[in-house]
User: What shape does this take?
Amino acid sequence: MEETMSRTIRVLLADDHPVVRAGVRNLLERAPDMLIVGEVGSGEEALNSSKMLVPDVLVLDMEMPGLSGVDVARHLREQNVPVRVLALSDYDDSQYVFGVLDSGAAGYLLKEEAPDAIIAAVRGVACGQGGWISRRVVQKVMQRARGTQQNACPLTPRELEALQCAARGLTGPKIANELGISQRTVAFHMENVFQKLHVSNRTEAVVQALEQGWLDL
Assistant: This one.
């Protein structure tokens, strides 16, 4: 079962299409632990509303009037606004994917994702988790990575398996269940991954592994 939060998750929606915003709002409002605190339709509004409302999660489209989603995420990080960003986009272009993740976003999902996956991602991001990346995005980036020179992977096969699960958005308990190991062992493997890749969280680890072509999902 997915991890849940005891408090209400405050969500800000940023998308320039009112119909899309309405659909995401209706989806998230069905979850008893989520509250939509605002909706905006441009990059500037997303940045300003994030600073004013300070939601737990900003669900952010990539293509909006004014500032792009990548620009919004970068400005939020540079200005130390304590909001976690989950990109929800129509685009699987690696420029958007790497741009927004490098700017500090906790995940990148496509709008075609199953509703349960989007709800789980918002919850995970609100809890401080990273690495919520759509499978189709991972596959496309992998295709590009296979056509480039790959560096030797410093991770053990088990560490790679744990990171592959993290790239699919699985939580610690689900990784443990899938690999048939304890949650403590999962934490041990992920800590080794962070140390070997010189990163501080699963999102950075997944991005680096994708860029190097080490993941095979």
In short: Residues 1-5 have pLDDT under 50 and may be disordered.
